[in-house]
Every structure is written in C-alpha cells, then in structure tokens.
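$ run holo --ligand "flavin-adenine dinucleotide" --emit tokens
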Amino acid sequence: MTVIVAGGGIAGMAMALTCHQLDIPVVVHESVSQLEPLGVGINLQPNAVRELYDLGLREPLEEIGVQAKEWALVGRNGNDVWAEPRGLDAGYQWPQYSIHRGQLQMLLYREVVRRLGSSSVVTGSRLARYQSHADSISAHFVNEADETAEVQGSVLIGADGLHSAVRSQMHPDEGPPIWGGPVMWRGTSQAKPIRTGASFVLVGKLEQRFVCYPISQPDPQTGLATINWIAELTYDTAQDWGDGDWNTKVPIDKFLHEFADWSFDWLDVPELIKGASDVYEYPMVDRDPLPNWVDERCLLIGDAAHVMYPVGSNGASQAIVDTRLLGAEFLRHGVGPAALVAYETATLKNMNELILRNRGAGPIGILGLVEERCGGVFERIEDVIPRKEIEEYMSKYKAAAGFAVDSLNDAPPTISL
Ligand SMILES: Cc1cc2nc3c(=O)[nH]c(=O)nc-3n(C[C@H](O)[C@H](O)[C@H](O)COP(=O)(O)OP(=O)(O)OC[C@H]3O[C@@H](n4cnc5c(N)ncnc54)[C@H](O)[C@@H]3O)c2cc1C
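-- output --
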C-alpha cells in the first residue's frame, strides 16, 4: 500500500525520491496549486549532500549550487572572530552547497515527476485530517474547490512544514510557533563575492547581524554573482511580528537605516541591501520540542517535526536526512508503525536537543561570548577567547547536528541497496 506524504517541500520531495529508490509506492499531496521557486538562499551540509548524491543528484546539484569554502564570523569592527574551511576544504568527502531554496525544491520536484510520473504529486491538495485504522490510514485532503477526498495508505508522513496540520491534529493543545525576538530580512543582490569567493560570512553581534554568501557562480564577464543576504535585529518580544510567514515582502526602508553605517573596505552592507529587488521579512520562530512524532500510522518529519532557528544552516539538511533515516527503517521493518517508531526512537532526542541549541544561537553563540568578555571590541580575538575554546564549541555543534567530519566520513551509507 502507498506511503501518503502531506507537503511537497524539501522533506516531502526527498521522501518521494527515497521511497521510489526503495520500490515503495508513494504519493505527495501539496497544498499550493502550483509549486514555484520560493525563498532565498540556504545551505546544504555535507550529511545532506551525501544523501542527495546517493539519490543520484550529484550533477544537477553541482549545476545550481555553489560549493561553500569557508564559514566566518566577523566582529562589528571588521576583525575576524573565527574562520574555518567548509565542505571538501574541511576534509569532508562531500561538499557543502549554498543554494537557492526554491531552485532546490524545483529540482527535487522535477526529479520526482521524471522518475515516478506526474500522478505522484497532487497539487492543490491540502491535508485536513487523518485517521489510523488497524491495517491502514485514511488521509482527508481538501482541494481548491473545497471538495474533500479520502486517500488510503499504509502510513502518512507529515512533511507539511512550520504550520503543519498533521502536527496540530497530533498535538492539538500546542498553539502557534514561538517567537523569541529576532527578525530577519532576506534578499538577493548582484555583487562580487568576497573572501574565498564562496564564503558564508556573518558580521556583527547576536542582537544585530548581517549574513551574506554567494548562491551562484560569478558571471565570467562582470564577476558578479547572486549574493544571498540576511539582515537581522532583535526586538522586545512584547511586540507583535506575526507567527512566521516566509513570503512576506517589505520595503527596504523598514530596516536599512539600522545598517546605514555598516560599510567596510571589503563589504558594503547598505549597498548590498539596496541591490535587492524583493526583500522578505521573517520573524525567527520555532516550536518547543515534542514528546512524540508518531501517532499510530502517522509520522512527522522535517520542519513539521522539529522546526528550529535557522542559525546552523540545518533545517533543509535535516529534512533530507530525516527521509533517508526513515527509508532505512522501512527497509528494516517494512512500511508500517514499527518503522515509524524505530525512526522516532533513533532521532527524536537528538533533534529536540538541537532545537534548544539553536534557540541558544547555535554555532553563532560564540558572538555572545565575545560580547560577554570584551563588549564586542577587540583587536586580536586570541586575547579574548582562546582558539581551542572556539574549536571545541564548533566541534560540539557539528557533532550535535550530525556533520562532524570524521564520523560522517566513516559512517556507512544510510541506505545500502
Ligand atoms: C515558501 C517557503 C519559503 C522558504 N524560504 C526559506 C528561506 O528563504 N530560508 C530558509 O532558511 N528557509 C526557508 N524556508 C524553510 C525551509 O524550506 C525549511 O526549513 C526546510 O527546507 C525544511 O523543509 P520542509 O519540507 O520540512 O518544510 P517546508 O519547506 O516548509 O515545506 C512544507 C510544504 O508543505 C506544504 N503544506 C503546508 N501545509 C500543508 C497541508 N496541510 N497539506 C499539504 N501540504 C501542505 C507547504 O506548501 C510546503 O510546500 C521556506 C519555506 C517555505 C514553505
């Protein structure tokens, strides 16, 4: 019987490709009537890239992604706090890609349609509710004409993101996402890549920061690439910034003045902001860890299960890894409740810890230490924090997020066929 997937985002599409690789019938139901390449830049960590390569997506990823070479934290005065190599340069067997979220989703969607056929993705089909039975599960979907269709399957995978309907049914008392104060403005602009040419750079302090990294190769004529940027400020939580919509467009005047004097000889923040045609506002929200993701024949994955602050570049990466870990359990236990429980047992505790770690600023928490120890003003970072302390901090984060170099390189494939 079929695996029913609610949600055609990155988790839902990767789930479909994984099921297909395992010869498991699968259908994805996506609420929007037409998938479009929405969002801006994200990073795919080597643990997720490994899984996408195992799905045969090496070539198309190489076409649309930029192999990240460096991850750097820079103080407000322009001095480096920390810089480390990333991807292949850091010794991983797989690269880290900086990539446009929408292009990645469309790549996965096209591959699902090419490999499984167009009937494997039903658009304009929103999950309303589900009901588990002894040997099957029924999922009720509503189309744009407000008609309901009941679909039977062996399991239902809730990959329906931040505002998951599957999660609301499973945990009806939970309430809306939680906002802790930071607001992000995101956009892309054409500019020359800085530092290594493929660096993720974060400038500033915890309460006010600016991130940028290229998500396209530079144009050979002009040297300009598409630079993804995020400007971020922390507000008093008494204010109301909504409960998290990735597609709210706002004028740049709303926040540009806050970054007006952020010009360095190597990076002109105001110019980069002004170069964007569209800017999206997003209050950084997450949800509290859940005690369970499984309800009989239904399982939550991706953001529906463990949405977290996007400070460690692991939301999309983890969504992909989830589908592969679940696929491995399907191989071990067959497609049914035992596989769902085995997946939950192996994954839930780590993810719940990661949600809280990211709420505490994840890898960029180092900036908090710099503030604490010298008010953010320093000439040489070694005089403020010993290098070894930062190294240990970063290693702990990578281990918690599942992309410590040695353990990833040494691990057998998640799915061996
Ligand atoms: C439009 C959009 C833009 C985004 N932009 C960014 C970005 O710029 N930067 C960033 O870091 N992250 C962004 N994200 C979040 C990022 O994609 C996720 O954190 C990560 O990829 C995990 O993906 P997911 O598949 O679990 O969830 P999502 O990517 O959120 O996908 C969930 C999918 O489920 C669909 N859906 C929702 N409810 C239902 C329902 N009831 N029935 C059926 N389908 C449903 C949604 O339309 C969506 O396609 C964006 C998400 C979305 C939806």
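-- notes --
Residues 3-40+101-176+289-362 form a domain with the FAD/NAD(P)-binding domain fold (CATH 3.50.50.60).
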